[in-house]
Amino acid sequence: MLFNAAAARVLACPANEAIGDSNDRFIPQRFRSEFSAGVRGLDHSRTMSGNWGLWGLRATGEEFPMEASIAKVESAGKKFITAVIYDIRERMVGEQRLRESEVRFRLAAQAGKMFAYEWDAATDVIVRSPESVQILCIDEGTPLSGQQAMARVHPDDRERLVVAMAALSPEKPTLKLTYRIIRPDDTVIWVERQSRAHFNEQGGLRRIVGMVADITERRRAEQVLADMTRKLVEGQEQVRARIARVASR
To answer: 3-state SS of the chain: helix, strand, coil percent to 5?
Structure first.
């Protein structure tokens, strides 16, 4: 009875060709019996979605994932079925990309020895991704507060971190810092922390989100390189000193 312009656009079918025809023409053959049963068993309203395997069929023969909000109404003693359909292909593609992105992040985090975290200023609670267990050696189910995390920072690095955090502001909300952490088993690791602070309208700190990476191996490599460079410089100085002594004779 009614086939508006949006329906004509989504289903690629003019209203004069759709009105009076069966709705089955807009449902792929493999879904028709399920769709019809869902409509017949309708009491008042129901939402059916492509997320659960419902697809539509355009007049061009192209299938697309759809969401249909269907309602049964009565007027003047007659029963009517109204349906509002949505082409949700872009939404499903977006959701799939988000899932893939999350998987890529998880793999990158595991390979790169890093984890994500969020600290709530009001509760002092830190929520962290599962990868934190490998780095911090603290069970995922063990609550962790900002105060407890700060206590794990090496005493020689703690003041530097406190000063950096105190300097965060709406104008300068980012932080990037390397420092040492003491694990529960007393081993010491180097981490690189990159964070962004979020503030309320009054400028008060609300939360901090960011990434923490274990850079212990990198720091060791840097130290080895620094030692080699120092020894090379010392060797060169010794050679120059010998040459100077020989030249002075």
So the answer is: 45, 30, 25
Q: Which of 51-60, 114-123, 126-135 has the lowest mean pLDDT?
A: 51-60
Rounded Cα gap, residues 73 and 227, in angstroms: 82
Q: Which of 45-49, 75-79, 173-177, 196-200 has the lowest mean pLDDT?
A: 45-49
Residues of the chain within CATH 3.30.450.20 domain(s) are: 5-87, 114-214
Amino acid of residue 6:
A
Q: What does DSSP say about strands 63-75 and 55-57: parallel, antiparallel, or unpaired? A: antiparallel
CATH class of 5-87: alpha beta
Own/partner long-range contacts of 12-21 (Cβ < 8 Å, ≥24 apart): 12/58, 12/59, 12/60, 12/62, 13/58, 13/59, 17/59
- CA dist 204 and 202 (Å) reads 6
Topology of domain 114-214, CATH: Beta-Lactamase (3.30.450)
